[in-house]
Specification:
The complex is a heterodimer of chains A (325) and B (263). Chain A is α/β, with parallel strands linked by helices and 325 residues long. Helices cover 31% and strands 15% of the residues of chain A. Chain A is built from ten helices and twelve strands. Chain A has a seven-stranded mixed sheet. Chain A has a three-stranded antiparallel sheet with strand order 7-6-10. A two-stranded antiparallel sheet of chain A has the order 11-12. By secondary structure, chain B is α/β, with parallel strands linked by helices. In chain B, the strands form two sheets. In chain B, strands 6-7-8-3-9-10 form a six-stranded mixed sheet, sandwiched between helices. Chain B has a four-stranded antiparallel sheet with strand order 2-1-4-5, covered by helices on one side. The model of chain B has no long low-confidence stretch (mean pLDDT 90). The chains are: A alpha/beta (325), B alpha/beta (263).
């Protein structure tokens, strides 16, 4: 990329080789955290420095990149990372899950099923699933080495004893290939079943913690649970207000200060493509254009008033859930 | 078969156990045998090497010399240093128990009493919440804690109750050997008496073998079958509890016995 003065996809070739070597090891040992020499990137820790380095290392000239943040293609983090690679690698970018070959994501897995040949890249703030229970790195590494994970169930037990159900709703720990305990990154537990035997290659990068790990295609990924309290995902009482989907992860959007709210797909591309295909939700059927306007600017179905929809959905969810990492 | 095994081999055999702290002696050339269902008390003043011995036995500290052999189920006497770390950890949380002097060291203070008692079960593969909870309640009742307080944090329990909770947490996997480090120290006298009563009952009803480190000869008299008197890291006298306490031979043991206050 002589035009920009940068190497292809920003990172220098030696760094990419180093990260690829770490990724190969990660793929060979599913769920195992491989240390790597994380580089300084032109964005702050916590904004996806791990994911962006992994993407830079696996991206080729023919790849089509999709970047999502909290399910949306149009939030600040997603827009900037997509533009970063469009400028430094000159790759094609897309909103459409089915067309993408590399998908970098924060906090979600797309609703549309993934396919063989696709690569998911997750941004991971804390790769160690046991960190909150055990702060010492030397101890957690020993526990991984000995597959000594009994005390993870202590936390689940404590949840049930306190709340009557397992209250962990995101970053829900999973067992990979029956061997390594893994943090799936802060995706909602709704997305955990999509990790299981996924045809796509799934790569996880933690920039600040300097770790990469991976789930190769068609690998067993099981969420921890008890026999009498099996793992279950979130459910909503109503379908998406815009597209009527009853099988997707919904964000709650507050509409006014009088208790008005609606639930819409967190995956904006999924929602928009369903609407293009003619699906409608309760908001359309009720002919309440002003409600739909809250998401209209983002999903582009009708020209509504300019409302900062995507940021609202993100903060609404963060405000509701437990403290986000 | 089981009965024969119990008659033929000791549960624990220790020989020549030595640990130096630099030039100083932690403990030197300690040896004894412990048989199933037997309670051995290790007595001596502070700094005599009692706690070092217990740390060596529990493999928390590596010995400079000597052997610790344990009769593993189905494998017979096996030297602990030959076990892999995974096997040793498994042994420590299934067939062994360790009761700390300070219950706050042996308990997880930030999770409920039930989770504390259930932790060993979960670590050994129990995955049924209802059963884990039932076992925890059962064990709380056995150590005379109110099972209704299963969801309370240990920090809301008194010192004596915390110590009983720690005992329940250790016994839930029905270990055959329990190591105790001054289990009654720091408790007031009436609580001590109840705890000793409880320990004596548990030891007899489960046929537990135990090594109890204590500086309190009364505890030794009540609980132990045999006594090991240590001074300066070495064993100076050993024998049946009553024999040693009623007719001490070594000058240090004589001093120790005569130092006990009588009311």
């Amino acid at each position: 990329m002589s035009a920009t003065g940068y190497n292809f996809a920003y990172l220098d070739p030696q760094t990419k080789r180093m990260i690829r070597r770490a990724l190969l090891k990660a793929v060979a040992i599913p769920g195992y955290q491989v240390p790597f020499g994380s580089r300084e990137m032109p964005l702050p820790y916590g904004w996806g420095t791990g994911g962006i380095q992994v993407t830079a290392s696996v991206l080729g000239r023919d790849d089509v990149l999709k970047v999502i943040d909290q399910g949306s293609d149009d939030t600040v983090n997603a827009v900037n990372i997509r533009r970063f690679f469009a400028r430094t690698a000159d790759v094609a970018t897309t909103d459409r899950t089915a067309e993408a070959t590399v998908i970098q994501t924060r906090h979600r897995i797309p609703e549309a099923p993934l396919a063989e040949g696709q690569i998911m890249v997750y941004q991971v703030p804390e790769p160690e699933p046991m960190r909150r229970l055990e702060p010492r790195e030397a101890v957690t590494r020993t526990l991984h080495a000995l597959a000594d994970y009994g005390f993870m169930h202590v936390k689940l037990y404590e949840d049930i004893a306190r709340y009557g159900h397992i209250a962990t709703t995101y970053d829900y720990p999973v067992m990979v290939n029956g061997r390594y305990l893994m943090s799936p990154s802060p995706i909602p537990k709704f997305d955990n079943p999509k990790l299981h035997r996924s045809p796509a290659l799934q790569l996880f990068g933690a920039g600040r913690e300097k770790r990469v790990y991976a789930v190769p295609p068609y690998t067993r990924v099981e969420s921890l649970d008890f026999e009498d309290h099996p793992f279950s995902v979130q459910r909503w009482d109503e379908p998406c207000a815009l597209c009527g989907a009853d099988d997707s992860f919904l964000d709650e959007v507050v509409l006014d200060d009088a208790g008005g709210r609606m639930f819409v797909c967190s995956d904006s591309e999924y929602c928009a493509s369903r609407q293009h295909a003619g699906h409608t939700g309760p908001a359309h059927r009720a002919q309440r254009g002003s409600l739909a306007a809250a998401r209209a600017g983002e999903v582009g179905i009708e020209q509504g008033k300019p409302v900062p929809a995507s940021n609202d959905t993100a903060s609404a969810r963060l405000g509701r859930g437990p403290a986000s990492s | 078969m089981q009965a024969n095994d119990r008659l033929l081999t000791p549960l624990l055999r220790v020989s020549g156990l030595t640990r130096h702290y630099g030039a100083r002696i932690g403990c030197a050339d300690v040896g004894f045998e412990l048989w199933p269902g037997e309670v051995l008390a290790v007595v001596g003043e502070s700094g005599s090497g009692k706690s070092t011995l217990l740390k060596l036995l529990s493999t928390r500290l590596a010995a400079d010399a000597g052997r610790i052999e344990y009769a593993l189920l189905g494998r017979g006497l096996t030297e602990l240093s030959r076990l892999s770390e995974a096997e040793r950890r498994w042994l420590l949380r299934t067939d062994w128990g360790f009761v700390e002097q300070n219950p706050r060291d042996g308990l997880r203070m930030n999770v409920s009493a039930g989770a504390n008692v259930g932790e060993r079960l979960m670590a050994t593969g129990a995955r049924h919440y209802g059963e884990i909870r039932a076992a925890a309640q059962d064990w709380m009742a056995r150590v005379e804690l109110d099972p209704a307080r299963i969801d309370e944090a240990p920090s809301r329990f008194s010192g004596g109750m915390q110590q009983r909770l720690q005992i329940a947490r250790n016994l839930v996997t029905k270990p055959r050997l329990v190591l105790m480090d001054e289990p009654t120290a720091g408790l007031d006298v009436s609580v001590q008496a109840r705890l000793l009563d409880l320990l004596r009952e548990l030891v007899t009803s489960f046929g537990l073998a135990a090594v109890i480190v204590t500086h309190d000869l009364a505890v030794a008299r009540l609980l132990a079958h045999r006594l090991l008197v240590m001074q300066g890291g070495r064993v100076v006298e050993t024998g049946l509890t009553d024999q040693v306490l009623d007719d001490p031979q070594h000058p240090y043991t004589q001093l120790l016995v005569s130092s006990v206050l009588h009311l």
